[in-house]
Amino acid sequence: MFNAKAKGKDELSVALKNLCDSIKISKIYDKNLEIYNQIIQEKNYQKA
Q1: Which of 1, 5, 28, 39 has the fewest CB atoms inside 10 Å of its own CB, making it the most exposed?
Q2: CA distance linking residue 44 with residue 12, whole number of Å
Q3: Above pLDDT 70, what percent of the chain?
Q4: Dihedral of the CA atoms 39, 41, 44, 45 (nearest 10)?
Q5: pLDDT band at 36 (very low <50, low <70, confident <90, very high)
Q6: Dist CA 37 CA 46 (whole Å)
Q7: Alpha-carbon distances of 12 from 9, 20, 23, 46, 47, rounded to whole Å
Q8: Which domain holds residue 26?
Q9: 4 or 33: which leads in pLDDT
Q10: What would the DSSP string read from start to end of the chain?
Q11: How far apart are CA 34 and CA 38, in angstroms?
């Protein structure tokens, strides 16, 4: 019983870690997209 509980806890912590990592990655992706869009807008503005 104890081993099953410990195993479940480990799986839960791994799942939470993976979730947190994917949230961080999506936040970084959103920020990069925002910066990329700003650069594109500045380049288009300079052309005009």
Answers
A1: 1
A2: 48
A3: 85
A4: -110
A5: very high
A6: 14
A7: 5, 12, 16, 51, 53
A8: 1-48
A9: 33
A10: -HHHHHHHHHHHHHHHHHHHHHHHHHHHHHHHHHHHHHHHHHHHHHH-
A11: 6
